[in-house]
Amino acid sequence: MRIRVAIALSVMFLSGCAMTSGPAPAAEGAKTRAEVRADLAMWKRAGMNKFYKGRHTPDIYSASYRKSYANYLELRNGPEYQEELNRLKGEEQ
């Protein structure tokens, strides 16, 4: 009998917690095909694709990986990304 009461109280407590939590934060929105392709181009230009060959997980703590990833972030947040995006959007038209 005590187990049933404990289970019932747990269910009531957990359902109350679920109801009081707010909705999940909204996502940025879907990326366009051109945005995805431009991002992939920056990924490849930085040399990140060489770390993901085969089934093995790359050593994300290695100096070469971290250097390439930093380069990717610079490209992705720099004018190179926007130039590639504009080029790809021009191809779509």
Automatic annotation (TrEMBL):
> Which N-terminal residues, if any, form the signal peptide?
1-26
A Pfam family matched in the record: DUF4148
Q: What keywords appear on the UniProt entry?
A: Signal
Q: InterPro entries under this entry?
A: DUF4148 (IPR025421)
Top-level taxonomic group: Bacteria
This protein is called DUF4148 domain-containing protein
State the organism of origin.
Achromobacter piechaudii ATCC 43553
